[in-house]
Amino acid sequence: MRVLFPGRFQPFHLGHLSVVKWALERFDELVLIVGSAQESHTLYNPFTAGERVEMIYNALEEESLYKKVFLFPLMESISNKNWIHDVELVSPKFDAVITGNPLVITSIRDKYEVIVPKQFNREKYNSTLIRSMILKGDNWKDLVPYPVYEFIKRIHGEERMVDLSKTDKAPED
Ligand SMILES: Nc1ncnc2c1ncn2[C@@H]1O[C@H](COP(=O)(O)OP(=O)(O)OP(=O)(O)O)[C@@H](O)[C@H]1O
Ligand SMILES: NC(=O)c1ccc[n+]([C@@H]2O[C@H](COP(=O)(O)O)[C@@H](O)[C@H]2O)c1
């Protein structure tokens, strides 16, 4: 069985990696969609789709999980109703969808089985917290797979976010 796991992954963290491992213990293959692909360079969506694909690829490769995962970006759709059709156009076929996002659940539940993932320390492992820690200069290294940390450092992602904070405001503020 092949299951879809969509997310913005801004950035991909240890909770996401735990969901991937949890899913691959239960299902044969995963389709990992990097959503909101047109978004980047804002405090809510600091990283480009290409950067997110690369950081996720690096994390999966380190865990030798990449062969069981299809990974690609997808832009937003014009309506929530259209979203699942747009996913089907570009994705290998899948049988069910893993998500804890109410918007995604509403968009797909008439057509696909919804699998709500086990929660992996959501208080600690959530991208909103990690983005705010990056901005404050806190130590966020242990909240993401090491290849993600190394990648964000290498592309000067922290400096980018601090620059963005001079002109942009995160919606969660
Ligand atoms: N720690 C976690 N344990 C289990 N599922 C998670 C965890 N963090 C995120 N998810 C799930 O991963 C999917 C993609 O989530 P997303 O990329 O929005 O991460 P997030 O940490 O919730 O980000 P943000 O804080 O930016 O909304 C969603 O279905 C979400 O419910
Ligand atoms: N109208 C739409 O384009 C639509 C609908 C449902 C989900 N999505 C996308 O699916 C992804 C879900 O990820 P998150 O769980 O990280 O929010 C997001 O990129 C979201 O924008 C988009």
Automatic annotation (TrEMBL):
Q: Which domain of life is it from?
A: Archaea
| Principal location class | cytoplasm
Which keywords does the record carry?
Answer: ATP-binding, Cytoplasm, NAD, Nucleotide-binding, Nucleotidyltransferase, Pyridine nucleotide biosynthesis, Transferase
Record pathway: Cofactor biosynthesis; NAD(+) biosynthesis; NAD(+) from nicotinamide D-ribonucleotide: step 1/1
- Indicate whether ATP-binding appears among the record's keywords: yes
HAMAP family associated with the record: NMN_adenylyltr
The protein in question is named Nicotinamide-nucleotide adenylyltransferase
Where in or outside the cell is it found? Cytoplasm
Keyword NAD annotated: yes
Q: Cross-referenced InterPro entries, in alphabetical order?
A: Cyt_trans-like, NMN_Atrans_arc, Rossmann-like_a/b/a_fold
Catalysis performed (reactions): beta-nicotinamide D-ribonucleotide + ATP + H(+) = diphosphate + NAD(+)
PANTHER family in alphabetical order? BIFUNCTIONAL NMN ADENYLYLTRANSFERASE_NUDIX HYDROLASE, PHOSPHOPANTETHEINE ADENYLYLTRANSFERASE
An example of a GO molecular function for this protein is: ATP binding
